[in-house]
Prior knowledge:
Blueprint: E1 18-23, H1 24-32, E2 36-37, H2 49-61, E3 68-73, E4 82-83, E5 86-87, E6 97-102, H3 104-115, E7 127-130, E8 135-138, E9 149-151, H4 158-167, H5 176-192, E10 194-200, H6 205-215, H7 224-232, H8 239-251, H9 260-270, H10 277-281, H11 288-313, H12 326-336, H13 342-357, H14 366-380, H15 398-401, H16 409-420, H17 434-437, E11 446-448, H18 452-457, H19 462-465, E12 471-473, H20 476-482, H21 487-498, H22 502-507, H23 513-520, H24 524-543
Helix pairs in contact: 1-3, 4-5, 8-11, 9-11, 9-12, 11-12, 12-14, 13-24, 23-24
Amino acid sequence: MPATPTSGPTASAPKDPQPSVDRIDELARRILAADILLPKFQRSFVWERNQILALLDSVARGYPIGSVLLWQSRQELRSENRIGDLHIMLPKPDYPVNYLLDGQQRLSTICGAMFWAGGEADSRWNLAYDLRSREFMHLSSMDDPPLHQIRLNKLSDPTAYFKHVAALDTLRTPDKADMKLHAEQLFNRFKDYKIATVTLGDMSIADVAPIFERINSTGTPLTIVDLMRAATWSPDFDLFDSIEAILSDLAEKGFDGVEKKVVLRGISAAAGGGFSTDSIDHLRNYTSDKLKGAVTSTSASYKRMVDFLSTHIKVPGAEIIPYSNQFAVLGEIFRSITSPSAAQFAAIEQWFWRTAAAGYFGGWNTGMMATDLRAVAEFADGKTDQIKVDLTIPVKDIWAQRQFRANNAHSKVLAIVLSYQNPKDLLTGQSIDTKAALAWQNEKEYHHFFPQDYLKQKGQSAARINALANIVMLTSVSNKKISARSPSDYLADVEKSAGALLDAWLRSNLISPAAFAAARANDYDAFLSERASTIHAEIKGLAAW
């Protein structure tokens, strides 16, 4: 039976989103009535007090505050029963509800400000509006404030609100009429203020997750990890805490930058599923004990994985790994094989270089995920001596044609390959600090062999100037000395400094005698071609192609 497509025009499409325009106080009342639920995306209400005041001010001024996204569903997500110290209702069992996917902080603020029932004086909902200064403020006492300050929770009770407004007549001040007018305007603004609401029809988490990740517009973008936290939460299991604990352990090795979504893929595979969103969705059906076991297994395998990356691939952190989803498969490899043999380690290294250089994970889809999971299982069971992967061997031209950029996978591949050579600074012969270079946030060690300004003067395009094959590891001091000089000029200094060590210095930078000769003749085309060939040959050796 053919697999159901998961993307593209032939995939099973969810119901069309239903747009509407709603009053914010009505949306807030729906939250209190448990018609709109707040899934457990965050541990608690996280906005700062100044953010609360800024949002209320935007509403009062009629400024736009963005749209909200709802998901109408019977699926069960754990939801909050309080916003700060404001209690809200929980839904009836098996009752269709609307989960608030985007806009939690905004609607929570409106709900808390308008419907707070009182309590602690230091509550974030102990709010008032100063009719004189026309500013929102937090109060520090439960006592009634002066008449020119009106508590915001009276906005939900017109009788109490306008009783306060009428009391302004007792003031013997010339601005009382102006304050009354402004109080009426404030009330009407909060009653009439409308925002766009988009409601997604009932669909699976697998369907709603990509929509959620793409549309979400909060200050802290939410992902399927947040959805699954709400789907799997119980008093003794919190997916966020579990993933954070794994990343905390990896921080000791510099790998806390592994994406949470990648760790979630690992947990899904460890629980007996796979890497896909559909498999992740099945986590909701597992007991907390099974989920805890999968987390424990993933934690152990990820520690073995980063040890491998640190010692075998020689990278100091997550940022330099070409593709984040390489972690997912590597984690499963080291979950399946706790103590690889020397031959298995060699095969894993070859797999790493092959998938990185071929750009395999650039288009990792559901079918590839399933294929990779089977390949790992066959490798772990000893059925194959390699981790089989269906890819196309790249051609050498990519190193001459693609540009060096911090977010580019092949740039990272080049950086790791260069570090393997223990490169020497071309002007001084000193060893380059490859660990600092591979930290990747610090690009000062990467420079152009043919200087940028020199090539600009020769009319070369930016894309060609920044070709991967034109990049070497070079200290900033040496780069400044080279400046815009032609290669034929500054390489004469290199020859003098290196003397009999010239070939070793050049070889440590993957510069062949032919590439050096082309550079001495200022022949950029020939240099790029020759150096691309050298880089390509080095990677082919690492990948055992």
